[in-house]
Amino acid sequence: MRSVAPSEAAYDGRRLRQWSRGAARSAGIDRRDLLRLVAAASVAALPAGLAAPAHAADRTVSAAPGIVKPLPPEVFTVRGTNAETNFAALRSTGLLTPAERFFVRNHTVTPRIEAADWRLRVWGDGLSGPAVEFTYDELRALPSVSRTAFVECAGNARSYYTTQQNQQVSGTAWTLGAIGTARWRGVRLADVLHRAGIARHAVDVLPSGLDDEVVSDGINLGHVRRPLPVAKALDDVLLAYEMNGEPLPPDHGHPVRLIVPSWVGIANIKWVGDIEVSAQPLVSPWNTGLYRLFGPGYPAEGSAPLTRQTLKSAFELAPGAAIPAHRRHELTGRSWSGGAPVRSVEISTDGGARWRRARLRDEPRSGSWVRWSADWLPKDRGPAVLLARATDRTGRTQPATAAHNTQGYLFDAVVRHQVQVV
Ligand SMILES: Nc1nc2c(c(=O)[nH]1)N[C@H]1C(S)=C(S)[C@@H](COP(=O)(O)O)O[C@H]1N2
Ligand SMILES: [Mo]
Fold it and tell me: Do the domain assignments include residue 297?
């Protein structure tokens, strides 16, 4: 069992104080623009273009501009530049999500990058020497490691703040499918940082994507980038070049992306081309106005930057699915937590009056999900509400209501899944 490392908690507190004092350095964006972004976040509305309102009717679009792979409507629901995996389409998959079914979250468009042209530049005042470059072949020649990990958007399940809790949030109106689990192979970021000569006084590592700069409401936010504390960067982070035994597909970061196990999706920078190693704390839009909790109950500058994902459960069933009465039905689903391996999952088929244990079908592991199943013999025809509730090894259980924040991050409440018994 792994609980939140003390260094992670210390990092959060320290960054927050540094940011509010103005002591952290803005990497590649004007500090006033960052402050505008933070101010916008605290009043719920994000600059247009970064986020559509969560109630927008965006289910009918069949293609996402800028996503390369096919998006069959049985598998994906397109939301702006993003594609959500329909959970029902995971029922036939194993523990690992095939790349063709893996959700896509793009701030702009998928860039086409040839591995042979790719370079990774590692630089900054947190190195003891000059900048170092790695080619793709040089990276592949380093010792490799493999790891099963989910990537989940911090805003996954955001739409339930509105549909279950009647609260306004900004951002893509995901249901539960902004998550996938894959076997990633690559090089430890720690190995690359050590080879590049990371110094003892380094505090932050800032990976940047090679996709287009993000322009939002007249502010150029620059390339997608989010500082990682050195403690996490040197721990279990991968520079991954393979997904489920194949080279990374274009939409998932070809040729190389970061995998930051258990942390918010945004930490997993795709198409990484540049890593700044800094002796000072860094800020970017993605750890200031974005990916913090804002709203009543939070400081004006937001919570500490988000790190670990929360816990959730989902049925592998379409919303409103028809289920025949008086026949045994095998309900299946998945649960996961960024905090610790899942300990147990309970389900209810009567809207929460009675609960029983689901059977776990995988050995629960940190940073991954578990599949589960439970038999159901529906008797009464008509609408029914299915619930699934996970508990992880820290003892945390999904609550009935999630604490609101203006951008709808980290929804953790039990989701009410409507079906029709026919
Ligand atoms: N360069 C770059 N990296 C990125 C993003 C992006 O738009 N550009 N999106 C981030 C977000 S918000 C998420 S949730 C994950 C999604 O990874 P996927 O598209 O492979 O599922 O990638 C992250 N890394
Ligand atoms: Mo995300």
Answer: no
